[in-house]
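Marked as duplicate of an earlier ticket. Keeping the data here for the record.
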Amino acid sequence: MHNDTVALKGLMFFARHGYYEEERKIGNRYGVDIQVKADLRRAANHDSLKDTINYETLYDIAKTEMEKPARLLEHLAERIIKQIFNHFPAAEQVKVVVRKYNPPVGGVCRAAEIILCRTRQEYEQVLS
């Protein structure tokens, strides 16, 4: 696996996710970080957008998935990962962090977050 990485940090969305119906009605603020490992040598040598992991496309994937309600942050992150692997054949590993600000935990909590990390091999095993 290559250590070359394209990352987006601190994406911010207002969305309607949550286990409880009230959470989905009211909505909340969410943060997303995305990290994609791939061989970026060709992009580095040829200065061509088609040879890299386009971070505009990464943002669009996250935005699209954030607009579709999910009960669990894990499910949401998995959907983002699947779309990244589908869009970028060169992606070898994808790590997604989703954080929910001020989650309903019955006390003070700045954010709850989940972190999922998948390799292409793991993703393809799930498909077969």
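See parent ticket for discussion. Helices lie at 21-26, 41-46, 55-66, 73-87, 120-127.
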